[in-house]
């Protein structure tokens, strides 16, 4: 079985955020052969095209981490019916310079969260728009809109509810299948070239 390295990007910068707790609990459910690396986005400066020629260490390191990953998992809260600015900033940094996007072709999955019942629907779909533009094959099903996010993870760091745990296990299995499908397609394309 081929090993898969997944970059995890959490939209909230707050250390105790529900999104971060959910992401950490999901990583513990990883299927065999799938590893996760949390990518810090807190130190990225605001994207400014004037600085593309000399982006600085934080940006260069971030882009290198994304390029080294086989796929990306986004776990984000919803801010004002969209993604938090820090996550959008990270996406913009990874997409530049033009024609050299670190995101290009990487399979992706999206989990959105909210304290309310809607589960971050707006953030989920805004993020999917950007990922489609960045040529990132994105998991369509199952969709992951996680409402009442503060109750999802128990005090011990595990998923609090068996049905939710089963959902995340299935979500990760579907994501692994998408990654494998993208790899097969890439291999077939290279063979045909």
Helices and strands, with pairings:
Elements (H helix, E strand, L loop, with lengths): L3 E7 L7 H10 L6 E5 L18 H12 L2 E7 L7 H10 L13 E6 L7 H13 L10 E3 L15 H31 L1
Parallel strand pairs: 1-2, 1-3, 3-4, 4-5
Write structural notes for this entry.
Helices cover 39% and strands 15% of the residues. By secondary structure, it is α/β, with parallel strands linked by helices. It has one domain: Rossmann fold, CATH 3.40.50. It has a five-stranded parallel β-sheet with strand order 2-1-3-4-5, with helices on both faces. The longest helix has 31 residues. It is globular. The chain starts with a strand and ends with a helix.
Sum this structure up briefly.
The protein has 193 residues and is an alpha/beta fold.
What overall form do the CA principal axes indicate? globular
Helix content: 25-40%
Detail the poorly predicted runs.
Answer: none
CATH architecture: 3-Layer(aba) Sandwich
